[in-house]
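Bumping my old thread because nobody answered last time. Still need a sequence for this structure:
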């Protein structure tokens, strides 16, 4: 739905008033409507900085160049020359003194990062730190990066961090591809961990990324699920679009558009998991990607909530997901190198008034992906969660005006995200190139100020 504040800002008759009142003027985020290109960073200038003794700079340089970026190692003299991407290898930062490299790298470049620019910093993996000071220093890099995101967000610039295991430094191509590209328009202030936990896939393709893959998306009839089904299909996947029977018309329309298969299924029904597993084997011989997107809310403060509202939310948002995964994993219906993505929520991170049931399930999913990931890593399967913040969907359109306006502004880019923004991150996590990322929960929230 339209962002009223953006409209008022752009209108010559009202723009001055909005500015006089000191209201935000959200930047137009540069998004990409299509599938991944072979060289998504072509024509973009990337400044690569490094702390002494870092171990990821070489790989970052290769990944940037492979994606078509023009990599430079020093700021151009001319002050009007802008930088599109700043990547800093801070894996050498293990003492407070070495953190000075962050200041030295970013202080001069801050005013020169172009609108809709990207910042990506790599830090040493916390678990590999030699001592408490080294671990604290790495965690300090995260605080630095999150603050950069808050300072730069008004220009549509995102800043994200990757903790990188020493041996996993050659797993950064996918990360550069996503976090330095247009697809990350609404993902900022996030910290992901790149590890060797999952064995590398046989092949990593970049354009298209998912040819020949079979994907299941639950709750695909509208909103984030619909955008995800479309996005996965754009990358060449065959998508099975599941939703409740009442949504069959929307499902049919979507599937005829993307060449997918509609599936009327209430995921919380008795034996839905068994039926689903049987169907996937019979029709496709298995499945490669599972996106657990279907979710419901039944909001009431706990004292007023009836047991039915509690049970319904627990069943759809959590129990059904666990049952489906059990059926798909135990029968090896989910193939090796598979991908599981669960839709969590900012409510799961921070809790929310009137959402004890919903927040319990969404927090459970954060714990679930962290616990399941190591159990399936040997098969090359990754399991991650995506936690959307304020996303412009039908759910949000029903909010009272002021609640909606506030919700939209409480993030670094001062606006709501689109279902497509969430679909972009989900799709990236489903690609072979994201094999270094498992057990993570990543927010798509424009760096929301709530639960940050
Ligand atoms: P939505 O309500 O627009 O769509 C959810 C879809 O799931 C619907 O098509 C619905 O019919 C389907 N569904 C519900 N119960 C089902 C069941 N038992 N079996 C099969 N399908 C079922 O939701 P959305 O806003 O697109 O959100 C998608 C996911 O993202 C949800 O899990 C939600 O909790 C999460 N999320 C959304 C937001 C947001 O801002 N929209 C924020 C945080 C988290």
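Sorry it took so long. Here it is:
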């Amino acid at each position: 739905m339209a962002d009223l504040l953006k409209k008022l800002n752009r209108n010559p008759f009202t723009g001055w008033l909005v500015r006089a009142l000191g209201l935000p003027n959200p930047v137009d985020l540069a998004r990409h409507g299509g599938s991944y290109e072979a060289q998504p960073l072509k024509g973009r200038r990337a400044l690569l900085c490094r702390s002494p003794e870092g171990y990821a700079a070489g790989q970052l340089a290769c990944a940037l160049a492979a994606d078509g970026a023009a990599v430079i190692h020093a700021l151009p003299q001319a002050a009007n020359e802008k930088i599109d991407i700043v990547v800093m290898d801070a894996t050498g930062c293990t003492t407070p003194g070495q953190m000075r490299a962050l200041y030295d790298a970013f202080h001069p470049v801050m005013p020169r990062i172009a609108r809709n620019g990207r910042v990506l910093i790599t830090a040493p993996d916390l678990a590999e730190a030699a001592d408490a000071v080294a671990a604290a220093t790495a965690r300090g890099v995260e605080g630095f990066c999150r603050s950069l995101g808050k300072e730069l967000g008004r220009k549509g610039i995102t800043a994200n961090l990757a903790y990188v295991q020493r041996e996993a430094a050659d797993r950064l191509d996918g990360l550069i591809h996503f976090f330095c590209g247009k697809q990350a328009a609404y993902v900022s202030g996030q910290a992901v961990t790149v590890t060797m936990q999952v064995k590398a896939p046989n092949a990593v393709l970049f354009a298209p990324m998912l040819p020949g893959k079979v994907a299941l998306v639950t709750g695909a009839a509208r909103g984030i699920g619909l955008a995800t089904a479309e996005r996965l299909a754009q990358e060449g996947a065959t998508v099975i679009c599941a939703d409740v029977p009442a949504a069959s018309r929307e499902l049919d329309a979507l599937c005829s558009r993307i060449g997918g298969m509609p599936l009327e299924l209430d995921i919380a029904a008795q034996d839905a998991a068994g039926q689903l597993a049987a169907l996937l084997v019979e029709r496709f011989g298995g499945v490669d990607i599972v996106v657990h997107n279907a979710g419901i809310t039944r909001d009431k403060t706990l004292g007023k909530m009836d047991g039915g509202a509690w049970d319904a939310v627990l069943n759809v948002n959590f129990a059904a997901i666990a049952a489906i995964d059990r059926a798909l994993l135990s029968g090896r219906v989910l193939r090796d190198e598979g991908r599981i993505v669960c839709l969590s929520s900012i409510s799961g991170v921070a809790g929310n008034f009137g959402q004890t049931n919903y927040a319990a399930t969404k927090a459970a999913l954060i714990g679930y992906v962290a616990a399941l990931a190591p159990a399936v890593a040997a098969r090359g399967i990754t399991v991650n969660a995506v936690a959307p913040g304020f996303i412009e969907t039908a759910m949000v359109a029903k909010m009272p005006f002021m609640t909606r306006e506030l919700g939209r502004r409480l993030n670094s880019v001062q606006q709501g995200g689109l279902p497509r923004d969430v679909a972009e991150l989900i799709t990236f996590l489903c690609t072979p190139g994201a094999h270094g990322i498992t057990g993570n929960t990543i927010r798509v929230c424009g760096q929301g100020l709530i639960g940050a």
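The longest helix spans residues 307-330. Let me know if any region looks off to you.
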